[in-house]
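Ligand: MTE. Inputs:
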Amino acid sequence: MAPLERVRAGRKTNLALLVVLVLAIGTGALAFAIGTGWAWWALAAHGAAGFALVLLSPWKAAISGRGLRRERSGAFASVALAVLVIVAVASGVAHSAGLWTGTLAMQVHVGSALLSIPLIVWHVVIRPVRPRRTDLSRRALIRGAALAGGSVATLGAMEALVRMAGLRGSDRRFTGSYERGSFEADEMPVTQWLDDEVPVIDASTWRLDVRAVENDGVASALTFEELDAFDDRVQATLDCTGGWFAEQIWSGVRLDRLIEGPDEEVRSVLVVSATGYARRFPIADVHGLWLATRVGEEVLSPGHGYPLRLVAPGRRGFWWVKWVERVEVSSTPWWWQSPFPLT
Ligand SMILES: Nc1nc2c(c(=O)[nH]1)N[C@H]1C(S)=C(S)[C@@H](COP(=O)(O)O)O[C@H]1N2
Ligand SMILES: [Mo]
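Predicted complex:
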């Protein structure tokens, strides 16, 4: 290739890489956010984006090799970015194939991806890829389609290989999670989103603070015995973004029994843990949320949320607030919160 053509080909590869990286991170976040069957589509797109990175890597390696030989500034950060992307893709493939199924695999996968974000931004700032109108030319679009097709085909080939080799990867839920401890709560992992510690709570003095009317200073306080007496049951799957799931029979009280006929101003219900961890839900969801005192007939263990935890069927694990001490209705819309918890 003539030098000028090489530069052009390099520019297109870089642009494609940037688009694919944004897609990979976006679909990954989406797969975490969705707890229903739709998660499968996000996960499939995520897998395809990962393989698109692999397919583009020989071209990128050639471009980077030329760049590194010129010893431009920022080489260290560029290499760090490359390493992070390789770690993210490798851990993702290892987890989905079933070669590395622990929560550590997902922590490494997500951790490296998150660390790569500031480096991607930095890389785009100091080596900008300027899009041109020809980037949307027929030829470019055909190449893009070829890359997408190749990525989906590679993903399909990997799935087939995993099945043929009898690896655990073929035995996953639509979210990509592996089964652990269904109907055996003791076998189910204890997981915290980030840095919460299991609190020691004395249920005899503990009260659930219910604020069923907005700005109601006079809250009702329910004891453990009162809540445990309801015995509303639900069979539901706790599916942690750390990559495991467990189905259990939970019992406690359905939330609409504590919050009945909320007025029109009320838009959401906030569920708050003794640790400060909290999630906000659309008010209509109270008919499908449970505050559980028990799992599989047994009182919850401290790690699993004793004395009271939220059960939120169809939502990923981070919505299932443990050690609940307050539920509060409010006129704030449910989406007025960070999409993922920050503690
Ligand atoms: N208070 C509090 N509740 C929490 C968390 C947390 O960090 N703090 N982690 C959530 C996450 S990410 C998951 S997957 C489930 C795990 O529940 P388990 O430990 O009972 O398996 O609890 C959820 N509830
Ligand atoms: Mo989780």
